[in-house]
Structures are given as C-alpha cells and as structure tokens.
Amino acid sequence: MAPGIGGEPESSDSLRTFGAVVQALREHHGLTREELGDLVGFSKHTIASIELGRRMPDLDFVEAAEAVLGNTNALRKALEHLERQPGLAAWFRRWADLERQAISLFNYECRMIPGLLQTEAYIRALAADQLPPLSDADIEELWAARLERQRLLYDRPNTAFSFIIEEHVFLRGTGGAEVTRGAIEHILAVSKLRNVEIQVMPLAQESHAGLQGPISLLETPKHKWFAYSEGHESGLLISDPKVVSTLQARYARMRSQALTLKHSASLLERMRGDL
Q: Alpha-carbon distance 79 to 141, whole Å?
C-alpha cells in the first residue's frame, strides 16, 4: 500500500504483540472478551480486533484496561512502543480510527491536494508515479479506500473540516489540465458544504507560518487534540500536548495568512477557467 494515497494498512508485528499482551492479561484475570469489553466500555468485537492486532488501541481503551487488568503499566509501556515504531502502517491505522470520530479536523497541505478532497482521476495520477510501480488491483484498492474515507465529509455534518492548500499545488497540474480542472471543480463543490472551509495559501506570501511542512490536526469527542505528520515511507502520530499546541498555533496563524474563503473560491474559479 503506497503511503500518502492509500487506505488503512495491514496489521503490524507491534500491533499483534500489543494484542497478545492484552489477551494474556485478560486471561490471567479470568475474563472473557465480552466481560472485559463491558468493564472498559468497548464491544467484544473491538476487544477481539485489538487482541488480533487488527486495530490500533484507543488511548481511552488503554487507560480503562490498565485499571481493570491490575495497573501493571504494561499496556501503557507497550503503547509507547507502538508510538515510537517507525513506519506508516501503524500510524495511519490509528490516525484513521481517530479521524472517523473527530469533531474537528484541520489539514494544511503543500505537496498535493489533501486525501479527503482528491478525485478519482487525481488519485490515479498520483498512483501512476508511485515507485515501486503499483498494479491495477493496487490502484483500485487505493481509490476504494480513499472514497470510503471521503464519506466523512458527508456522513459527519457536525464535524468541522478546515483545509489550507498551497496555490502551487494546483499550478503544478498533476495529471494534466483535465485532471486538475476536475480536481478544482470537486473542491469548489465540497467547499459549499456547511461543515467545510477551504482556503488557498497564495503563491506570493511574505509571511508564512507553515514553512516546516504539512500539518494535520484533529479533536476527539473528549476534546483531546492529536497531530499527524507523514513523509516518505513513514508517518508519526503526535499526542504530546506541547507539540500539538505548537502546531495548532501555526495552523491558526496560517488561517489568517491564507486567502479568505470567498477569495479562495474566486481564485480557484479563475484557475479553473485558465485551464
């Protein structure tokens, strides 16, 4: 699965190891999956997915499970190992889980159109440049996974989505004029949703708070914030409040530096007309 344009990854060794620890502690305390689920507030199916290494453990699950399973600190320590393990697979799985329940989601992108806003043609253009090359089946899987994620924009009308996209992302012309035109038309359509705000960072910008790279932020229903950073063949979920606060401040500054919603839409319409 290609990083940056793919869906959720397969289970990793660290996820299976964490799951085995949960199972061992549960069985040591003589609990079934259903009984543990009742005690920690998760379904028996979620417990099974975690124990089998198919699901990244939720922070709330870890804290609740620690209290029920003897406060050994084993799960907290194991979770730290997961957070430090390099590789996109584990990171994206957990971010995707958080994304599905977020009440606020912010994304600044300077490399490509954000995944939640990509069209099928744009995704296929990105996939064509992946190395090592992807098979037709891989590309179909990428699009299906991305389309599933994009349902969040419509299925969660009470979630606030904010996107800041660099103007040069559109000027690059990924996939050619027709693909870029379609991408802009799609973004203009999505921007009309009440829960979505899309701003463009102009090419000529003397002051820019996001020069260090892309920023993804989200807020959970319990008002805890997380950030996500992705690079070549790697990704990092960030939960450190100090780091997340810094990224929030940068994103807030960029919202004031980018074009307004109205001016962003006008620029996109002009760019579409020029293609």
A: 29
234 phi and psi angles, rounded to 5 deg: -160, 160
CA pair distance 48, 53, nearest whole angstrom: 9
Quick: pLDDT tens for 235-273.
788 989 999 999 999 999 999 999 999 999 999 999 999
Does 1.10.1040.10 match the CATH number of domain 13-84? no
User: What is the spatial distance between Cα 238 and Cα 92, in angstroms, rounded to a whole number?
Assistant: 12
Give 236's Cβ-side CA count (13 Å radius).
11
> 219-250 burial, b if ≥16 CB within 10 A, otherwise e?
bbeeeebbbbbbeeeebbbbeeeeebeebbeb
User: How many Å apart are CA 106 and CA 140, to the nearest integer?
Assistant: 27
Residue 188 · residue 265 · CB < 8 Å: yes
The answer to whether the beta carbons of residues 82 and 58 sit under 8 Å apart is no
Q: What does the pLDDT read at residue 184?
A: 97
Distance between CA atoms of residues 221 and 219, nearest Å = 7
Q: Identify the CATH number of the domain defined by range 102-274.
A: 3.30.870
* Number of other residues whose CB lies within 10 A of the CB of residue 270: 10
Q: Which residue has the tokens 């020069």?
A: 211
What is the average pLDDT score of the chain? 88
- Strands in the chain per DSSP E: 104-109, 160-166, 196-201, 215-219, 225-231, 234-238
Cβ atoms of residues 225 and 218 within 8 Å: yes
Task: For residue 197, list its beta bridge partners.
Answer: 162
Q: What ranges do the domains of the chain cover?
A: 13-84, 102-274
Q: Which residues contact 68 (CB under 8 A, 6 or more apart)?
A: 29, 31, 36, 39, 40
Q: Classify 220 as helix, strand or coil.
A: coil
